[in-house]
Amino acid sequence: MSAGASVLPMRLDRGRQAAPQVFDHLRERILALDLKPGAVLSRVELMEQFGLSQTPIRDALLRLAEEGLVDIFPQHATLVSAIDLTHARQTQFLRRSIELEVVRTLALSADETVIAGLKANLARQHAMADTEDFQSFWALDQSFHRAMYEAAGVPDLWRLVRSRSGHLERLRKLHLPTPGKTVKIHSDHSLIVTAIAAHDPDLAQRHLRDHLSGTLGLIDTIRDRYPGYFRD
Asked: The HTH gntR-type domain covers which part of the protein (predicted)?
């Protein structure tokens, strides 16, 4: 599979450096599974598509390799990496450890403005939960968690977790279309916010732990459904 067949068109902002824009675009396509594990990313095709020289394309691919999202074989090919389950488990450990403290911090302060913002996000999630617009629901899920990091005063940790989450996010993306999954995510989020609003940090942590445990508990089922997408 070539890059040209799968990477959506993109207009570069000529006022910004090109390599970060190409990186962000390719990363989004990989996490959305538009570029599936094993897809070939041709430097020549990418240069033609973006109208760029080799250097920014190379730099973007090297950044993707640093996040483990592509495998670069010098003088041969660059492939979208298979989902690394060991990496996904470690990222889950990191994320759970941080977010347990995030929800505890929020529950101890229970700022009404923060709670109102989270509830507004929940309302949008509820409207999307019964549809098949998984991409829009995913964006709301991400913004919900990001808002909690920001409210807890640790936005840089969100960026850290995000930079480590490529394998875990693709695994979760494969699980998202499962019937009832979006409704369950909305329900989990609602329980977390209710516990935060009730100034109950222990309950907020309990609901968060339950929320983050679902996908990894179903790895065998997901692997059976998508053979060839994974490596241990």
From this structure: 16-83
Per residue in 148-163, pLDDT (tens digit) is 999 999 999 999 999 9
For residue 101, pLDDT beyond 80? yes
Q: Which residues contact 97 (CB under 8 A, 6 or more apart)?
A: none
Residue 71 to residues 37, 84, 92, 170, Cα–Cα distance (Å): 10, 12, 22, 16
Same domain? For 128 and 158 the reply is yes
Same domain for 109 and 24, yes or no, is no
- pLDDT mean across residues, the chain: 92
Q: Which domain holds residue 57?
A: 3-81
Q: Which amino acid is at 36?
A: K
Q: Directed axis angle between helix 54-66 and helix 18-31, to 10°?
A: 50
